[in-house]
Amino acid sequence: MTEILRASASACSNIAFIKYWGKQDFDLNVPLNDSLSMNLSAAVTTTTVEWDSSLSQDEIYLDGERILDGRGVRVSRFLDRIREQWYRMSARVASVNSFPAGTGVASSASGFAALATAAIGAFHEGLPDEVEMTRWARRGSGSACRSIQAGFVEWTAGSEDQSSFSRQFCPQDHWDLCDLIVLVSRKSKAISSSDGHRLAIAHPFMEARQEVLPARILALKGALANRDFRTFGELVEHEALEVQAIMMSGRPAALYMQPETLRVIHGLRRWRNEDGLPVYFTLDAGPNVHVLCEGREADQVLERLQQLVPGVEILVNRPGPAATLHQNHLL
Hints:
It is a single chain. The chain has helices at about 70-85, 105-120, 130-140, 195-200, 205-225, 230-250, 260-275, 300-310, and strands at about 5-20, 25, 30, 35-50, 60, 65, 90-95, 150-155, 165-170, 175-180, 280-285, 290-295, 315, 325. By secondary structure, it is α+β, with helices and mostly antiparallel strands. Strand 8 and strand 9 (about 165-170) form a beta hairpin. Helix 5 (about 205-225) packs antiparallel against helix 6. The radius of gyration is 19 Å and the shape is globular. The relative contact order is 0.20.
């Protein structure tokens, strides 16, 4: 008799203010350093998992198309970890993103947070506690552990599997902070984040980076807790440029920024310096620009961005919710 166990979940992507770049353990995605992030309300992955005893192998679908390349292999390897502790059935997995994958919006973060939640939730035995769920998500993709809890999240690097986990730093309603993601490109990046982590380990700048990060993280946590936007923005912008410098000077070089990326960066710095508009930016491993402002400035910043790069899609994000189970099944 065929047995089918099904659940669906949604999870937000997140933007790291202190970056996760470089790993201690590549199998379990244990990072070199702590990081701090915000969930993105408009960058969401929804995933349905069906454990089906009649299947001979996993079936993976993304945005309606069956995936037969390395992305599907990565999902199946993660499901293998779950099968080791629960039931040894193959699964049918369907996912949809509200944003383009592989362009500097952390699709693997929302993807594996939603996948972990749906895959374990499908057993209807209750989810592990939130901290344990962050470990499960991390085993699929490091940054996914920051997408389990709502709002602003701190990932403690630790040194091995059990000591590497995330906790909420501030709740979703702590600060009306906006991240306007300017999607200057929808093309997948030439060097994946996974490859970038490996390149970072050998970079001569990484040792010095690890030495200064604890003080930077402490200062950023203080600015975030106190809603001190100027200090927050200066720290986040410096952090983004430092990590981009490591990316660009690696071998091979990871040149994620494009001409439109720099156009947006120069534009918002001009608005800040000449017009006094409080706006900052950060970047991930991709060309798209995360423009940061407080909620009261969001409409003005959005209007200026639309004039600066007409026709370019902009995702307007506030602090996003936790990963959640629901009944809106894709299968």
